[in-house]
Design goal:
Number of domains: 4
Distance between the termini: 81 Å
Number of strands: 11
Radius of gyration: 39 Å
Helix content: 40-55%
Order of helices and strands: HHHHHHEHHEHHEHEHEHEEEEEEH
Largest sheet: 6 strands, mixed
Number of helices: 14
CATH architecture of the largest domain: 3-Layer(aba) Sandwich
CATH superfamily of the largest domain: 5'-nuclease
Length: 411
């Protein structure tokens, strides 16, 4: 397959990552070439009568160049994912250390001049050691408190995640649920989606489980991650930041609190724990319930009672979207369609419950098939009184399927 066709099949994010790697490799080659050329030029320029016109001390230049190249290469290779916040913190700490070292050096020079101290080597060593100590303290202090510097220096932040909208952190239950893919495809999610590495590890553990149900859930979660990464409308990243903790829920709350971020989940227990610790949570069940059409108290609608309820006399039915409806005194109407009047609604993260009572019209509308409009009209018309004919004493025929019309057993 040609290279151009292969690149067209790649996701735009994967293609951008490949181009970035190629650019970094090219830059490494260029800088290595420049480094070697500068080193060779620095060592040349000695006496022309020698076979190799090298300057005096060329071995020191060569040794220093090799050591510096090895150190830089190790730093570059062992830090493949460099964060701008960490780099900025290090440079800021070094800058503060240089300023502090200059001030301390001026103070030391003043003391030397006043007291006429005659140990220049000792004074120089003291300045260097003080500078190294201040650099260490400055860099470590900034790294440990980088999130607090936005309060000290206006408009300066070292944590990228704090700027703009908060990212969404997906947990295991949200990935297995898979509704987040459909929500993302609508274009509603504008914030970055972050999946911690320990969540991916938990899904991998489930996918390798011997239990068939757990194995299917784990594989579905991994498939959802792949779909999210291939979506052109979403910004998805896998974060491998180490987080202290034994349980995944505990690590997830700590991870979201440190960013800070919003957790997307369907786990009711995780929702409660996160809110207790002050972490914002978006429960997909709450989102789904919020998108359902609302009913007001007193509104009437038809519902088919499918089974008895937990309480005596109650009946249970379901709307088309799966919402459970509890009908008072509906136990005797199982298998029938009744007209229900809404009396109360309960909204929870587990779902929405609608409570209602069977209206009087509902008792008259109970039919096993069809509706009132489908009922046949009676063909019998009693004779009029006063024409010499007594009214008939036999009852008026009742159409089939409309038994009980005109009377209410509870009245």
């Amino acid at each position: 397959m040609p290279e151009a066709a292969r690149q067209e099949e790649l996701h735009p994010r994967e293609l951008a990552e490949r181009r970035r790697r190629m650019l970094v490799t090219s830059l490494r080659s260029v800088f290595l070439t420049v480094f070697v050329v500068v080193g060779v030029i620095a060592m040349l320029g000695g006496e022309e009568d020698k076979a190799l016109p090298l300057v005096e001390g060329w071995s020191l230049i060569l040794g220093f160049g090799v050591v510096l190249a090895v150190v830089i290469a190790l730093i570059d290779l062992f830090t493949p994912r460099k964060k701008i916040s960490t780099i900025a913190s290090v440079f800021f700490g070094v800058l503060v250390a240089m300023l502090a070292t200059f001030v301390v050096g001026q103070f030391i020079d003043l003391i030397v001049n006043v007291y006429s101290i005659q140990y220049p080597q000792f004074i120089s060593t003291v300045k260097v050691l003080v500078g190294i100590a201040l650099a260490y303290l400055s860099v470590t202090t900034v790294l440990q408190t980088q999130d607090d510097f936005r309060l000290v220096i206006p408009y300066v932040e070292f944590a990228k995640q704090i700027r703009g909208t908060r990212p969404f952190v997906l947990d295991t239950s949200a990935l297995i649920d898979a509704r987040v893919v459909d929500v993302g495809e609508t274009g509603l999610i504008q914030s970055p989606l972050v999946i911690p590495q320990f969540v991916v590890g938990e899904l991998q553990t489930l996918a390798d489980s011997r239990d068939r149900l757990k194995r299917e859930r784990g594989r579905r979660g991994l498939d959802v991650i792949t779909k999210l990464q291939r979506s052109a409308l979403l910004d998805v990243s896998i974060d491998d930041t180490p987080v202290a903790g034994k349980a995944v829920d505990q690590m997830l709350v700590a991870f979201a609190s440190a960013m800070p971020a919003v957790i997307i989940t369907t786990d009711l227990g995780l929702t409660r724990v996160a809110r207790i610790q002050g972490v914002r949570v978006l429960n997909l069940n709450d989102l789904a319930n919020a998108m359902k059409p609302s009913l007001v108290q007193g509104e009437q609608f038809s519902i088919r009672v499918v089974k008895p309820g937990e309480q005596k006399g109650q009946g249970v039915g379901y709307l088309e979207d799966g919402t459970m409806v509890v009908a008072e005194d509906g136990g005797e109407h199982v298998g029938k369609t009744v007209l229900l009047t809404v009396t109360n609604m309960v909204q929870t993260s587990a779902g929405r419950l609608i409570f209602g009572r069977i209206s009087d019209e509902g008792d008259e509308a109970e039919i096993e098939s069809g509706g009132e409009d489908d009922l046949p009209t009676p063909s019998y018309e009693p004779p009029k009184v006063g024409d010499g004919v007594e009214p008939p004493t036999r009852p008026r025929p009742v159409p089939h399927g409309a038994r009980g019309l005109g009377r209410n057993p509870r009245r």
